[in-house]
Amino acid sequence: xxxxxxxxxxxxxxxxxxxxxxxxxxxxxxxxxxxxxxxxxxxxxxxxxxxxxxxxxxxxxxxxxxxxxxxxxxxxxxxxxxxxxxxxxxxxxxxxxxxxxxxxxxxxxxxxxxxxxxxxxxxxxxxxxxxxxxxxxxxxxxxxxxxxxxxxxxxxxxxxxxxxxxxxxxxxxxxxxxxxxxxxxxxxxxxxxxxxxxxxxxxxxx
Length: 206
What we know:
globular; alpha+beta; 206 residues; 8 strands; four-stranded antiparallel β-sheet; 32% helix
């Protein structure tokens, strides 16, 4: 069995007391051009603040589900609602703005090998135009959150697999995204590191 995690953080500024329906899959079907049916009539509801595990064997459709939320793929039929917006109808030029509200931790981490840990985390804020004074304040705080303050000047190849995963998590959190997607984040780690990271995730999302 393989694992994906979806974390949704509570809204801090609901409009006039409105409670947003965070994520809704409504009768979603995804069929690839070769005829493979990855998802068939999926209906899924995730509330604000929920911590959701999507579990299944390889080929069960977990990665496709995440790609649909990221709008890397489009549904064949059905709709996906995120924060009261049907993202299946978003035009391509609106997708980058939508993705600014998403934090993603990929299975292979995708850290920049020639950037320090500090620079890797800071990059996520730089690309969305965060002021430098905010970056200088927030990056150390994020590294402290994942217990990597002392490794800020290290490069990814100087860290263990578990530490690299924590850097990827800090980078995903850096832009203030409310939706965090983790693609099989613990599968390549040993048992002790998996326990440590589960603890970190629970602590960070409280």
